[in-house]
Amino acid sequence: MIFEDNDIQQTKDRLSAWWNNEGLDRPCIGFNFPFTNSKITSVDEITDFFMSFCLAKNPDGIKSCMDKFEELKENLYAGGESIYSFRPNYGAGSLAAVFGVEPEYMKGSDKFGPLAETVWYLKEMAPDEAITLLEETKLDKNNEWYSRFLNIVEYAAKRAEKGNYTIAMIDLGGVLDVLSSLLGPKNIILNMKRNPELIENACTLILEKEKRVFSDLQTIIDKHSLGCNSWLNLWCPKHYYPVQSDFSAMLSPKWFKRFALPYIKEQAEDLDFAVYHLDGENQIAHLNDLLSLDCLDGIQWVPGAGKEITSSMQWMPLYEKIQAAGKKVILTNFEDSTMIPLFYEKLDPDLLYISRFFLDRFRAEFYLPEFIGGKGGKGNFRKFKRERKKEIKME
């Protein structure tokens, strides 16, 4: 198998057909690997490419962050339905910054491990104070973070247009997740019991601002590139977003229906396509309610914080249930690359998107499914690698 430069228009055409449930000549899959003799030498550099916290550490350093991205881009192959995308990453739930919650960047905490990076948004205040803040927050040039988001995305979108890659939407976060940044989890739970109307009012105000910020940022992106991308690194021909409500892991099904589902539904209905980010085993209790929403096109499942393997045979009944409801399944981070072809056999390939990073081109060629020219994991990898190295030297 010889990797050639990806035809980006052909890739977009295939992804367009996948989103629109049209016939495909083969299943969709996105994959990446470092070029042979590339400058990428560590896992940290790979992480920098896909979810760099460069802007979280330097909020206005868009030029240097994109310089680093473009340097890494030249060392990584994007194959199948993978399209290069720059992600302006201020951490999950960054809409909270628009409401005055300053992000706190953290690296190497005991909770997340020595290489982990994350951003916290937390400014606990009284519920009435939070309502006043949400009502009075204006999305204009005087709002420091709203203006920053606009400026960063405009610079990035213009630069990406010349570099032939896409810009991902900023990770704005889920409605309840943003509210948790303002009140703290305990205050939310207490007020769901004592003053549920206050929580509903707060969620309505947050969603109103979130839809406006999304629209304003995506309008800028639309001027410079066709389509939409997100932190999922999955391109879409129209507007989509990974809707989420990580806070819902703390809710009973009854409270989920009241305090989370209506806002998930409204946000999804405002988009051309919507995927739900199902994060954690405690959210499985809400899956039936989510699958009942016609406005949701797919589910992206992760087992929860600290669980690196997101795709395994353990969750096959969950994937099958999602597809039985006519929804797409989006998977990443396999415990074993040999499983990837098996997933396309066991699940409906028309409702499946898998993305995978390989350490080198030999692993990509060996483990990729046969429908895209790989070996499907069949045979002996070491023998295959030796033989391919000889073939490449002779080319």
Structure description:
The chain has 395 residues and is an alpha/beta fold. The protein has a single domain (8-394), classed as Alpha-Beta Barrel (TIM Barrel), CATH 3.20.20.210. The protein is 45% helix and 13% strand. It contains 17 helices and eleven strands. It has helices at residues 8-19, 43-51, 54-57, 62-73, 95-98, 127-136, 144-163, 175-183, 185-194, 196-224, 253-259, 261-269, 287-291, 316-324, 339-346, 361-367, 381-394, and strands at 28-34, 76-80, 85-86, 104-107, 117-120, 166-167, 240-244, 273-279, 298-302, 328-331, 352-357. The strands form three sheets. The protein has a seven-stranded mixed β-sheet with strand order 2-1-11-10-9-8-7, sandwiched between helices. Strands 3-6 form a two-stranded parallel sheet. α2 crosses α4 (62-73), α4 packs parallel to α7 and α6 (127-136) packs parallel to α10 (196-224). The chain is globular and about 70 Å long. The model is unreliable at 109-115 (pLDDT under 50).
What is the secondary structure topology, with strand pairs?
Layout: H1 8-19, E1 28-34, H2 43-51, H3 54-57, H4 62-73, E2 76-80, E3 85-86, H5 95-98, E4 104-107, E5 117-120, H6 127-136, H7 144-163, E6 166-167, H8 175-183, H9 185-194, H10 196-224, E7 240-244, H11 253-259, H12 261-269, E8 273-279, H13 287-291, E9 298-302, H14 316-324, E10 328-331, H15 339-346, E11 352-357, H16 361-367, H17 381-394
Parallel strand pairs: 1-11, 3-6, 7-8, 8-9, 9-10, 10-11
Antiparallel strand pairs: 1-2, 4-5
Helix pairs in contact: 2-4, 4-7, 6-10, 7-10, 8-9, 8-10, 9-10
